[in-house]
From TrEMBL:
InterPro entries: Homeodomain-like_sf, HTH-type_Tx_Regulator, HTH_TetR, Tet_transcr_reg_TetR-rel_C_sf, TetR-like_HI_0893_C. It comes from Pontibacter korlensis. Residues 5-65 form the HTH tetR-type domain. It holds the Pfam family TetR_HI_0893_C. This is TetR family transcriptional regulator.
Amino acid sequence: MEPIPEKKKAIFESTLGLVREKGFHGTPVSLVAKNAGVAAGTIYHYFDSKETLMRELFDYIQQQVIHVVLTEDKKDTSFKECFFNIWFSLFSFYSGNPNVFRFMEQFINSPYNTGERELGKDEFHRLLFRFFERGINEGALKPMNPKLLGTLAFSNVITTAKILSSGRLELQEGELEQIPQILWEGMKNR
């Protein structure tokens, strides 16, 4: 992942916090600038509009998620081990970054999310589906549509992070590990 300038990163972090707190419509560029400690003109140096800022922030987050997957998808490691490593790494990423999690939820359901970000057309989902295709080709997973398996697994991570972060569910020791295990049992090739 290519490093970004500190001011741009401050703008992203400011936006994430404000969107979590106030939503997209309650987050004007002037407030982002004030919260980031930069001049409004600095924001327009990096982004030509609020819409561009939101889309680039989404892309920036997607690159972080892609990095998580690529770090755990090791060709010299069994598919099963990679599956569990990716599941727990994505879970840790989303549960450890509540501002990111909230932003992504809002972005997906907003007008900022245009057609090029449809399921399977973005870089993250292509990577995810290729990962599950690998599992099928290696005989580790049932011969199914890799898009179905990828969608099922990723939505499981997201839902688990969401429910646990809301406090609606408290897990006992060892129960978190059972969640991807149940998923694995349903997907593995017998």
